[in-house]
Amino acid sequence: MITDSQKKSYIDETSRIISLMCRANQWNGLTEGAIQEWLRNFRDQEGLYFASKIIRKWLYYSEDDIISLLRFGLYDKIYAQELISEIIQDGNLMIPNYITSSIIKSKFKKTLFIPLLDSNKPHESGLQFSRYLVQKLKVESNQSLFHYDIQPNHLNEYDKLVIVDDCIGSGQQLVDFWLSPQLKNIREATQENKIKCYYLILIGYKNTIEDIIATIPKLKIIICVPLTDQYRVFSNESINRYWNDNEELEDARNYFLKLTQERGIPMYGFAGLDFAVIIHRNIPDWSLPIFWKGSSDWKFLIERKNSNV
To answer: Which pLDDT tens digit goes with each residue over 91-143?
Structure first.
C-alpha cells in the first residue's frame, strides 16, 4: 500500500515533469498553466495522485508525430509493402534503390487522397490532413480533395484511393462515411476501374479495426499505431501501465466513478472507451471525458465541439 507521503512525492514529481515537457514543447498545444488549472478540478490528494498517474502515461501525439505517422503509413505500410509484393512476384530482387524510389514516387502520384468527414462537413482534422498532405508530403493540390468535389471520371487518373484520418475508436464514423449514399458513385467507380481503396488511420483501437474489416472488406485498413486494451485506463489489462496493482486500479475506478457522478460528466468516452490519447490540439471522444467534457463544476483540459453539450 502506497503511503500519503509517497503520493505527495509522486504528485510533486509529476508537476516537475509537466513543466519540463511543456517547456521543451513536447506537448505542443498544451501549456503548463492549462494543465495545472485542470488539475485544480481534483480537490484532494487522492485525486491528484490518480490524475498524475494518468498524465505520466497518457499518449500525446504532437504535430511532428502526426506528420511522421502519415509519412510512415503511406510510404512504409502502403507503397513499400505493395512494391515488395511486386518484386517477389517478378522474382527480380536486385533492383537498385534509385529505381525503387522512382517506382514509389510514381505510385504516390497515382493516388487520390480524401479526408474522412463527419456529417459531410469538413472539420478541423480533415482540413488539417489536407494541409499536411500538400505542405509536408508535397501532394499536388488536385490529389487531395473532399469527396463531394470528386467526379467519377476524375478517378480515371488514379489507381489508388486513400481515406486519411487521425484516430479511430468505435469505427462507426468510418462505416457511416464509406457506406453513405454520397459515396455511392465513388465506390462504384473504384470497383469498375479496379482502384485499390485504403483507409489510413494513424492511431486506433485494435479491436475496432478487426470489426471494421469484417463490415467493409473491400476497404483495406492500414493502421500505424494499433492500441490494445492495456492503454485503456480502467481496463484489467492496464495494470503495470497506469496502476501499481489490482487494488490501486479498483481504488481508481471507484474514485473516478464517484467523482464524475458528482461533477456531472461521464466517466467513459464514446462507445464506453477509456483511453488517454491526446492528438495535437485535438482529443478523440473515446478518450476519457475528464479531459474534454465540461460542466458547471468541471473545467475541461482540451475543448471539443461537444465539450459543453
So the answer is: 766 777 777 888 888 989 999 999 887 655 545 566 787 788 888 888 888 89
Distances (CA, A) of 6 to 39, 234, 241, 251, 255: 18, 22, 18, 16, 18
CATH pick for 63-227 out of 3.40.1000, 3.40.50, 3.40.1350, 1.10.3470: 3.40.50
Task: Tell me the C-alpha distance between 68 and 266, whole Å.
Answer: 33
Q: With contact defined as beta carbons under 8 Å apart, do 204 and 279 qualify?
A: no
The residue among 147 and 78 whose pLDDT is bigger is 78
What average pLDDT does the segment 13-23 reach?
A: 96
Domain chopping of the chain, boundaries? 4-56+233-292, 63-227
pTM of full prediction above 0.70: yes
- Residue 7's φ and ψ, nearest 5 degrees, are -65, -45
217-248: b or e for each residue (b if 16 or more CB lie within 10 Å)? eebebbbbbebeeebbbbbeebeeebbeeeeb
Number of Cβ within 10 Å of residue 175's Cβ equals 15
Contact 54, 233 (CB under 8 A): yes
Q: Closest Cα partner for 277 from 69, 59, 50, 29?
A: 59
**Separation CA 309–CA 304 (nearest Å):** 10
| 64: Cβ contacts below 8 Å, ≥ 6 apart | none
Within 8 A by CB and 6+ apart from 36, the residues are 15, 18
